[in-house]
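User: Last request for today: this protein with pantoyl adenylate, please.
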Amino acid sequence: MLTIDSIASLRKIVGQWRGQGESVGFVPTMGNLHEGHLKLVEEAKKHIDRVVVSIFVNPLQFGPTEDFSAYPRTPSEDASMLGICGVDLLYLPATNEIYPEGLEGGVYVEVPNISDELCGFFRPGHFRGVATIVCKLLNQVQPDLAVFGQKDYQQLMVIQRLVSGLNMPVKIMSVPTVRELDGLAKSSRNVYLSEDERPNAAMIFKSLNLAADRLNSGSRDFDLIVEEQTTFLTRLGFRVDYFSIRNPDNLQLSHESERRFVILVAAHLGRARLIDNLCCPSG
Ligand code: PAJ
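Assistant: Here's the final one, the structure of the complex with pantoyl adenylate:
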C-alpha cells in the first residue's frame, strides 16, 4: 500500500492506473478505523480494480463546541488494517492541502433543505462541512465508485444529492451498518463510552427495533411511537436529540398512507453522541 499526502501525488498515481485501463474506488473516512470502515473497503474491492482510502478529520464539519480535538486519531493502527485489507493507496492530506485558504476563506458546498433537518438542526453547518469535503475529495480522487455507510443515513442522502445535483460522474454505493454483537452500531465515537455506559448504549438499537415492531404490526401513530421510545431512552440516561420516523427516500416526516419508513435517532450518553437508524420494513 502506498501512502501519500498531496493532491499532486494522488493525481499522478490515479492517472497511471487510469492509463492502464483500471477502475478506481474510493472510501473517505476520518480514521480510527473499525470493521464498519473495513466493510466499505471490502465492498469497493468487489466492484473495481483499485481502492483509495482517505483519512482526514475534517474540521469544517465539527461545531465550535464539538469533539474535533478529542476525535480519536490512530494513524499507525489504521494504516496496518488498510494494508491487510488490500487497499492500494492511503491518502492522508494535511489541513492546508485541503483548505489552503483557511476554513473561512474558501469555497463551500451547500445541499439545501435536507442538511437543515435532524442532525443538521442539532449540528448547524455540519452537512455543509461534509458536502464540501466530500465534493473536494471526489474531485481530487475522481473515482468511478465511492462507498459510504448506511449508519450515517442522512449523510448518505446529502452525498447522493450532492453528486446528482452537481452532475458528478461517480457512482455512490452504500453498505449496511456493521454492529457489535449486542447491536450497537460500530463507531469511532464509541470510545467515549465508559464501562458503565457501554451496555446501555445498545439500547439505542433496541429502541429502533421496538419502534419498527410497532410499525410492522400496523400502528401509524407516529407521535406515540416517538414518545414511547424517547421516554424509554431518557429513562436509561440518554439525552435524546431526536427520535423520528421519516420517508426513506427524502427524509420528510412520514405520512399514514406510506409503507416504507426509516427510523432515525441521535442521543447523547455521557460524552458520546450516538446516531443510528433502521429501515422498516427491513431490506
Ligand atoms: P467516518 O465517521 O470515519 O465514516 C467513514 C465512512 O464509514 C462513512 O461512510 C460512514 O457511514 C461509514 N461507517 C461508519 N461506521 C459504520 C458502521 N458501523 N457500519 C457501516 N459503515 C460505517 O462519515 C465520515 O467519516 C465523514 O463524515 C466523511 C464522510 C469521511 C467526511 O468527512
